[in-house]
Specification:
Elements (H helix, E strand, L loop, with lengths): L35 H15 L4 H24 L3 H13 L7 H13 L3 H10 L11 H13 L3 H13 L7 H13 L3 H13 L7 H13 L3 H13 L7 H13 L3 H13 L7 H14 L2 H16 L7
């Protein structure tokens, strides 16, 4: 059977979403919206926060809404509204309606952050993770902004702080601190933090492993449709790792994650069909899934799927009932 591993989606990039801030966080805007345009911006920022773990989806949302909301965004930004400043910062950075200009985009995000916008602080921090001509990579500065965002009650900032501690970005590596901040973010409802914390608890990287607690967090994130959590929980159920084995549920979770683009899920679901684990053995379906993993996976996943595909092709196909 294929090797398996828990997937830590996105932690290196640190683009964790801010969905589900603490129960009584400070508002993203220092003052409540006073106009329909400002309310439009506030609603759009809330949507961007929910999509923050998926940059492509976030960009697609902005491009779609720009057709009807751009004037409100522009007017709110001109009026000094932090939500408007943040959205227009994204528009300049992505070249939505306006000419693409990272420097202007960052300046507008910085204005919102300086005004106390907790999510903007996290966005500013993320900008220091990419090495650009106009902005050198600076993990220490990124961490400073992430911590500031977290201290303002933003769950995505807490998640980013936890990831920095886990990887040693901008601060000495400290997995106890990583678990603390990821748990805070997860308890506040941050979906990415649930995935990251679960992966950390399974790996036992610098902390005592706890597959039972990991399964709890994967369960919560999977319930919100997170493909990484669906894949990881499916693998745990498939292998009986720390929780009772359940082939039927494992198959459903892996299928859902595969449909959402998880190559690891495709590879493990291929194993189920190749070996008849909870499903009727079907080498053709297994081969399709392995090829899907080879097309979309990273190097380790591709190698694993390729090896499994070769083994499947070398097997004499039994007569199908």
């Amino acid at each position: 059977m294929s090797d398996w591993r828990i997937v830590l989606f996105g932690c290196v990039v640190i683009i964790a979403g801010c969905k589900g801030n603490s129960p009584n966080p400070p508002t993203n805007s220092p003052s409540p919206p006073s106009s329909a345009g400002a309310r439009t911006c506030q609603g759009d920022v809330e949507k961007l926060i929910a999509l923050d773990g998926s940059p492509n989806a976030k960009e697609a949302y902005l491009r779609q809404m720009s057709e009807s909301h751009f004037r409100d965004w522009e007017a709110s930004e001109s009026a000094g509204n932090p939500d408007g400043q943040l959205i227009m910062g994204f528009c300049h950075a992505l070249g939505i309606v306006v000419q693409q200009d990272n420097k202007v985009g960052r300046q507008l995000s910085m204005l919102a952050a300086d005004a106390g916008h907790a999510y903007a602080m996290k966005v500013v921090g993320s900008s220091y993770f990419k090495d650009r001509k106009d902005l050198p990579k600076d993990y220490a500065e990124a961490f400073r902004w992430f911590r500031k965002s977290a201290d303002h009650g933003c769950a995505c900032g807490m998640c980013a702080v936890g990831c920095c501690f886990q990887r040693g970005y901008g601060v000495p590596k400290d997995c106890d601190e990583a678990a603390k901040w990821l748990r805070m973010a997860a308890e506040a409802g941050n979906i990415e933090a649930m995935e990251f914390l679960g992966a950390l608890l399974v790996s036992g990287d610098g902390i005592p492993p706890s597959p039972q607690e990991a399964a709890k967090w994967f369960e919560k994130a999977a319930g919100n449709g997170a493909p990484g959590a669906m894949c990881n929980l499916g693998i745990m159920l498939l292998r009986g790792y720390g929780i009772p084995r359940d082939y039927e549920r494992a198959g459903k979770l892996l299928l859902g994650a595969s449909d959402k683009g998880s190559p690891e899920a495709s590879c493990n679901l291929g194993d189920m069909y190749a070996h008849g684990l909870g499903v009727k053995r079907d080498l053709d379906k297994a081969a399709v899934l392995y090829r899907k993993a080879i097309r979309t996976g990273d190097q380790k996943t591709r190698e694993c799927a390729k090896k499994s595909l070769e083994q499947t092709q070398a097997t004499t196909r039994p007569e199908q009932d």
